[in-house]
Amino acid sequence: MLKPLHHSPPSNESSNQAIAVLSGKPTKRGIRILDVSAEYAHFWGGERDEWLGALPKIVRREVENQQLLDQLGGALMKGELRTGDSLSGVDQSEGNLSAGVASAFIEWRITAMEMPGYAEKVLVLTQRDISKRVEKETELKRLATTDMLTGLINRARFDYLIKHEIGRLNRYIRPFSLIMLDVDYFKSVNDSLGHDVGDQVLATLSKLLEENLRESDYCARWGGEEFMILAPETALAQAVKLADKVRQRIRCSHFPGAGSVTVSMGVVEVTPHETQQSVMKRVDNALYRAKEKGRDRVEFES
Description:
Layout: E1 18-23, E2 33-36, H1 38-44, H2 48-51, H3 62-77, E3 86-94, E4 103-113, E5 122-129, H4 131-144, H5 155-172, E6 176-183, H6 186-193, H7 195-212, E7 218-223, E8 226-232, H8 236-251, E9 263-269, H9 276-292, E10 298-301
Parallel strand pairs: 9-10
Antiparallel strand pairs: 1-2, 1-5, 3-4, 4-5, 6-8, 6-9, 7-8
Helix pairs in contact: 6-7, 7-8
């Protein structure tokens, strides 16, 4: 039998595992708990003795929990769960029964094994709250894909999105367009007003882009004062209208420390089986023409 353990103090993510020993031979009442650790009782609430003979709690949603128990029971009855075999997963649910956190992740594993003190093979369920770990991994991923100055996605992430959309276009013939944007005379802003003002211009511009693009659009800082917009499910004519709307919104906005700012924009619709190199060359050419024709304008290439 499991040796009773002292209760651990509440925490957002305990290093201790919650452990329950389950019957490895289902009865008409299904799989039942043979013993639990103090951490298991603390994790799910109630006293240790109250869990003996009860249905195991693997995940929080009752329907999913019963489905897992039925799956385990069926595998045991068919002899498909041999000693050493295991099932595992992560339960994500609103609310955290162990620590009162708004959203929690519970990592769980069930292993079939022989255990001293039990005549039959048993199932050992281990669980732990991994919310902090998931939160840290999510933040690291965000930092790896985000431009630190503007908060927009960075070039590496945008490069991946372009490749993904090209693949989708080739498979399903779904249109998408690219818009390349460059701040007009940005070097003059840095030289005459200083790099702090230049950074503020880029940050303000990024906010304007986020506010005026559609939820389905992706916007990235491509490098320096250049930005890229990916517009899924958008043909060329629609993308040109979107670009001009954004251009006008920027032109009418006030930029702290710099006053008014204008941008030049190039637009292309990506064609089936076109390479990413070809797409980028075409949109860059369209942007170059916008600059050559006087800036503060939108040019497209069909």
